[in-house]
Amino acid sequence: MSNGVINVLLVGVGGQGTILAGRVLSLAALSLGGEVKVSDIHGMAQRGGSVVTQVRFGPRVYAPVMAPGTADFLVAFEKLEARRWLPYLKLDGWLIVNDQEMPPLPVLTGAGTYPEDLVGEMGRLVNNMLALDALELARRAGNVKSANMVLMGALARRLPISREAWEEALAVSVPGRFLEVNRKAFYLGWDQNG
Amino acid sequence: MRELLIGNHALARGAWEAGVRVAAAYPGTPSTEIIEALARYPEVYAEWAPNEKVALEVAIGAAIGGARSLAAMKHVGVNVAADPLMTLAYTGVNAGLVLVSADDPGLFSSQNEQDNRFYARLAQIPCLEPADSQEVKDMTMLAFSLSEEFDTPVMLRLTTRIAHSYSLVELGQRREVPLKDYVKQPAKYVMLPAFGKVRHRVVEERRLKLAAYAETTPLNRVEWADRRAGVITAGISYQYVKEALPGVSILKLGLTYPFPEKLIRDFVRAVETCYVVEELEPFLEDQIRALGLPVTGKELVPRVDELSSLIVARTVGARVAAVAPELVCPDLAAVALPAMTAAGNPAAGSTVLAPGEAEGVREQGTATAAAGEEVAAASGQGGAAAPAATLTGFPAAADLPGRPPLMCPGCPHRGVFYVLKKLGLVVAGDIGCYTLGATPPLQAMDTCICMGASLGVAMGLEKARGPEFARRVVAVIGDSTFLHSGMTGLLDMVYNGSNGTLIILDNGTTAMTGHQDHPGTGYTAAQRPAPKADLKQIARALGVQRVQVVDSYDLEAVEKAIREETAAAGPSVIIARRPCALLNKEKEAVYIVDKGNCLGCRYCLELGCPALSFKEQQAVIDPVQCNGCGLCTQICPGEAIRKAGEEDE
């Protein structure tokens, strides 16, 4: 929004690790010395429901939630959710989208259809988009569950936060035995160009 | 040291720093994390009580006994605890007692969105409303002193957006507050009529003293800016006002009951136009109007759902902009007041929206997400609903399939609801994960009123429609919920001659709120071993002769038990037992579909399992999501589903 606040919206599906990703981002953002506010919004379902984490940081942040059309970054862990939340992205904002398809219940039961070519459609709409196969990159890092850190890595290189701050945030948030895999995933994401 | 904390953790920290010794709660979103955090401090005794009434009663005992104490609950929990609360307001405390009411505007995970500030007014006790995590901590600490100074319980009212948002908090050290002496004072603590009458006068005197305190406390402060517009606000609404209307003067109330009459009069008179911005009910507004002061509030600001910076900009912002556009945040004005900014003429933007319109963003979003999933949308997607199109962002897509909440892969409740649907039974439901048994494709639940209500509702249905109807009715309730407030309902069924059937869905935890312990798990809030309440024995002790225990994963056994018990005379209980699928980290071998045998009948999809989908007229199981529960093998007529790795023959 105004006054140098950076708005990051993380959207995904319950079980994908969006909340942990939001934790890493918010801890890294603390290194900038200003205020950080984070709001986790999840529905009733622990697995398979929609999950949204809003992270706002800057010199002075009031509301913990942002208005539509004001997100500087939309990081989508699943592409249908990316399209659903696209109206939150500023016209010149960045869309980072995991090219993964997780059919929601209406699609599974045949009551709805999963839209085709979502990434293509969004690519035509959005000026700044990075679509990546975070699942595959996470697999390469050593654990499919580290896809959330692949996405954080892709976001990280576009934010004015130091590498050291990210490293520290990762070390604090991720249990020791998973740290190496997550660091690897983070840097695989970092290296994605778009 | 500053740390990022959610409001609930800031509250726990504040209570700890203030020397709290006893804390009790029943888990309920958005309040749950308070006790979880307090239970980690060795200086604090923190417990999961079976319900909120008991939690408050434990806190009352502790406070009378001289220890600072706290009871935490969600808004509907205060309904359960309202009975002791009203009398506690009369007795007062000895050491400080703080009652946390975590309200849920926007219904992220609740049955209604009541505004519990009215409880403070009903009980005539002070109500504090913090606006971020730092204020949560500070006000928690102050609440204990206020409680002792004025000899009153203090209500600390959070909302979901405060309870669950992270912001920076300055940490301090614990101040050990010595146990106060316990002095026997029957006239104060025994509220029989003669004593109660006397205490009611004390309550009134206290209210006047608190009102005088409200005039001078820094909890209520004026932030002077442009005086053409002033806003009176509290809690999270303050943040939305600061963001949307950076130029206006603000009276921020931290103590919202009783409120500072003089401060309010002076503020209203000092500004040209005064608005009241508050979430949900016109709690402040009505009281301010009762003083004869001209303010505008719910005429513009919606009375339902959460507020947001955008809604404040669209409603009050539109009015303010017509007079002084520079007082409104330009970025939000661009989104909220397009007519005005497009015309470049503030006057042309006198698009004062009706409250209904003002809710546009969330309402339209919910409608988009709902897309034919009415029940699912109604079951609490809350803020996770999709946004509407804006001028500065990208357009919304039409007809995206919604992502309604659903039972997890491997959820033990799924099979029970599948059987209930198959048998076509009337199901009186309750609050918990299993409320999702009401959503497609299972849709096997008829009612859900409040915690513990399933038994009473089933009983009422039976008494209204006769014992034959009772054969078609079951009540379902979780293990934690049964212990919360199901036992009394079961006792009623026994005592008043019910023929009904109760199914206790025993997954061994309080799953919905994130796996808290309860008297049936064998552990305390601090994870210490505890005597494990035996549901079977409880049912028997309450007088139920017919009690069966079945494995929730064994559909044949579940169906047999339900058929037997609904047919039987007298009350019966079926305990359908299987641990929550998320408790067991090691998953069983996943299942796969044998393409040759799949008939393409789609029966398996009736389970509503997120791991099961259909591609090219055949079932497919996602190996990452499959939890290995095997329910699908039991309902597949073609024997097409088998464990991965097992040979065909």
TrEMBL record, chain A:
* Entry keyword Acyltransferase: no
Membrane-spanning residues:
none
Q: Which domain of life is it from?
A: Bacteria
Query: Pfam family of this protein, just one?
Result: POR
Keywords, A to Z, come to: Oxidoreductase, Pyruvate
Q: What are the residue boundaries of the Pyruvate/ketoisovalerate oxidoreductase catalytic domain, all occurrences included?
A: 14-189
Stored Gene3D superfamilies: Pyruvate-ferredoxin oxidoreductase, PFOR, domain III
The keyword Oxidoreductase is assigned to this record: yes
Any GO MF annotation of the entry: oxidoreductase activity, acting on the aldehyde or oxo group of donors
What name goes with this protein? Pyruvate ferredoxin/flavodoxin oxidoreductase
Species source reads: Neomoorella glycerini
Q: What is the lineage of its organism?
A: Bacteria, Bacillati, Bacillota, Clostridia, Neomoorellales
Automatic annotation (TrEMBL), chain B:
What interactions and quaternary structure are annotated? Heterodimer of the IorA and IorB subunits.
Q: What class of enzyme is it?
A: oxidoreductase
All residue ranges annotated as the 4Fe-4S ferredoxin-type domain in the record: 589-610, 617-646
Report the source organism.
Answer: Neomoorella glycerini
**Entry keywords, A to Z:** 4Fe-4S, Electron transport, Iron, Iron-sulfur, Metal-binding, Oxidoreductase, Transport
Q: Where does [4Fe-4S] cluster 1 bind?
A: 598, 601, 604, 636
Give the highest taxon in the source lineage. Bacteria
Can you quote the record's cofactor note?
Binds 2 [4Fe-4S] clusters. In this family the first cluster has a non-standard and varying [4Fe-4S] binding motif CX(2)CX(2)CX(4-5)CP.
- What is the stated purpose of this protein? Catalyzes the ferredoxin-dependent oxidative decarboxylation of arylpyruvates.
Return the InterPro entries for the record: 4Fe4S_Fe-S-bd, 4Fe4S_Fe_S_CS, HACL1-like, IorA, Pyrv_Fd/Flavodoxin_OxRdtase_N, THDP-binding, TPP_enzyme_TPP-bd, Transketo_C/PFOR_II
Q: Does the keyword Coiled coil apply?
A: no
The protein's required cofactor(s) are namely:
[4Fe-4S] cluster
- Stated EC number for the protein is 1.2.7.8
Per the record, what are the reactions this protein catalyses?
indole-3-pyruvate + 2 oxidized [2Fe-2S]-[ferredoxin] + CoA = (indol-3-yl)acetyl-CoA + 2 reduced [2Fe-2S]-[ferredoxin] + CO2 + H(+)
Quote one Gene Ontology molecular function term.
thiamine pyrophosphate binding
Name of this protein:
Indolepyruvate oxidoreductase subunit IorA
Q: Per UniProt, where does [4Fe-4S] cluster 2 bind?
A: 609, 626, 629, 632
